Amino acid sequence: MAFRDHLAAAEQISEPISLIHGMWEYSRSRNNPMLLFENISETPGHRAAVNLLTRERLCAAIGITPEAYIDTLAWAMENPSTPILVEPSQSECFENQQSQVNLLEIPIPHHWPQDRGRYSSASVIIAEYDGIRNMSFHRQFLRDENHTVVRLVPRHLRTMMTTARANGDAVKVAVVNAPDPVVLLAAAMSFDENIDELTIAAALHEKLYNKPLKLTTMPNGVEVPAESEYVFWGKITLDNDDEGPYVDITGTVDDVRQEPVIEFEGLVHRNNPIFHALIPGEAEHKTLMGLPRSPTIKDAVSKVCECLDVHMTEGGCGWLAAVVKIRKNNHDDALKAIEAALAGHRSMKMVTVVDEDIDIADPVRVEWAMVTRWQPDRDTVILSNQKGSSLDPSRYEDGTTSKVGFDATIAFDADKSGFMSVQ
User: Fold this and answer.
1) If residue 12 lies in a helix (H) or strand (E), which one and from where to where?
2) Tell me, which fold does domain 289-414 have in CATH?
3) Given 21, 70, 329, 373, which residue has the most CB atoms within 10 angstroms?
4) Catalytic residue among 115, 180, 248, 309
């Protein structure tokens, strides 16, 4: 089940499409369907896909419900597995090996007019240093034919790079574009401690695809998923350069910063390759950010009450807001759920807790629960001086924010018949 195997339902676009705003404009004009661009003007011989990994399309592609997927992700976190290693000659990503690196010939798009330029937004960085491996998403501005400037948020890879730079070392990396969706979800997860995300992907492979995750080794020694459409290998250098502006997940423009430069030494790709071109701020971006956080929130809430499901909302940018469904067994379960959810995902700013009869993916039903079951002066929790998210443009200058929780559940001791929708 490689990346391309999930594109059977994509609409194939044969007309010429430009890398400069073309995919973004075409997708938005069609309300963001799953698209496969077959004819990219600036990069003949290369294709690109957008809008594959929305919540519904992803779950349909692998034959599982969103509720079950959350539990499956949580299971994989508790049951990591070991990928198998295959030779480059047995690896699909080595079908074509370029003699010279020229990233300008790869269909890395310039999406929003406000972006600095061409950005690789769906590529995964696999880094190794001092015996530790990390796989994670970090957007990359295409600076020139063999350099990108990578926005490293303060997580494990930035810590790894900081340690290496203190020792005067570069960090070996491979940048992977369009591995299968299970690998992408594993890469989108974030943990408090260092966990090899490829072991999470391997567990998901065995459970969902009933086959092991195959890795192969790049010339610099970094191991990558063997069925990936593209792999570029190189190093995070000791140099920084300007990165941004960039339209981020909130649909607002992120700042210009000095960020690390990656220098690439080589690249390989599959025959007739397909580049995964994630459009910033749209549904696919929000799914990759939000869905892997749902099991973490559910786990935190499940420790204090019976949690049935969690949905990171599209209006909350897949990151800053969630709806949590619980089954109330005690009068204060909703309050405890609010506190646990906000602690379980520290970047979250707003959480709404609802009863088991509410479809948490339907914003109309969630709002209906609010107006019929929530009293503002009784069922609202406001927390001040909290850690804010760098993605929230309204955060205070010191990086803090306030957070809010809404109890939109029926009171535990109430007669529930008066609160139920007539079917």
Assistant:
1) strand 11-13
2) UbiD C-terminal domain-like (3.40.1670)
3) 70
4) 248
For tokens 């599959």, the residue is: 270
- Give yes or no on whether 67-279 and 289-414 have one common fold: no
**Phi-psi label, residue 73: left if phi above 0, alpha if psi -120 to 50, beta otherwise:** alpha
**Whose structure tokens read 């999930």?**
6
Q: Enumerate the domain spans of the chain.
A: 67-279, 289-414
pTM recorded for the entire structure: 0.84
> How high is the pLDDT of residue 156?
86
Structure tokens at 114: 């406000």
Q: How confident is residue 353, by pLDDT bands cut at 50, 70 and 90?
A: very high
Give per-residue pLDDT as tens, 231-284. Answer: 999 999 999 999 999 998 778 888 899 999 999 999 999 999 999 998 887 777
Q: Is 47 helix (H, G, I), strand (E, B) or coil?
A: strand
Q: Which two tokens stand for residue 2?
A: 């490689």
Backbone angles phi, psi at 383, to 5 degrees: -115, 130
| Cis amide bond preceding 245, omega within 30 | yes
Per residue in 288-335, pLDDT (tens digit) is: 777 777 888 998 999 999 999 999 888 888 889 999 999 999 999 999
Residue 313 CB-half CA count within 13 A: 22
The residues near 86 (Cβ < 8 Å, ≥ 6 apart) are 214, 215, 216, 226
Distance CA 187, CA 185 (A): 5
Instruction: State the amino acid at position 187 in one-letter form.
Output: A
Q: Could you tell me which CATH number the domain at 67-279 has?
A: 2.30.110.10
| Residue 248 is a catalytic residue | yes
Rounded-to-integer distance, Cα 132 and Cα 129, Å: 5
